[in-house]
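(Deposited chain)
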Amino acid sequence: MFQENSQVLWNKHQGGSYYKIGIGCRKEYSAAQPGQFVMLRAGRCAPRSALPQLLRRPFSIHRLIFSGDDVQGIELLYKIVGPCTRYLSECKQGDIIDVLGPLGNSFRVPDKSRRIFMAAGGVGVAPLVFLADILQKKKADLRKCTVFIGGRTADDLLCRDDFSDKGMSVQVSTEDGKAGEKGLITVPLESAIRQQPPDIIYACGPSGMLRSVAGIAEKYAVPCRISVETLMACGMGACLGCALKMKNNEGRYLHACADGPVFDAASLVF
């Protein structure tokens, strides 16, 4: 884990309220794994009239940025939802951001090629692209992998080409029906599991989606690893503000930053 003032490499609008930002990092980030995150304080690139950002905000590592064989930065995918992310969207190349990371645990990546399902909602797709990159490096047969991406509208369907370009099958759905199948992404996910269960499911997205995915995985006895999206104040387990209740263990809680953010779906009460 490192704390450093890092330089913005780029900040690109992806459509709607979504952006991708590249941030320089030290070479030790080459050891970062899918599911890990960083805590950002973007105050130094915020408007002068804005109130200072007192606490950092968590962002999943979306990708590693390489120069040859060396890691030179990390890429983050984010959505404007409040003052912090609005300030972040105004960052320019060369601006400085306070970065703490890499933090948390990661998805367990299988050594052998397996039939894998991934389920993502909105910016929950961020760590799954990183996971797909690692699977490709491990020479997994990505034709056996299916990615389910859901959102409220077509603007929320992110990174489809990042998966399809690797040979992965991609299914999308929107709540308004303007793109893909109309409805929640858990519907085609369950239908595909019913036809032929995968060896494992990886998921990241809103808590309601994760609750449904966990229930489906339990119903069909499929192992499921989820990355939870939750607010964090410190990212290191000091504030205890990101508590998650454990299943079948009365009174005990896990913490998304210190024990996660990746968990066995069967271990949590949603």
Observations:
- Residues 18 and 79 are 4 Å apart (CA to CA).
- The chain has a mean pLDDT of 90.
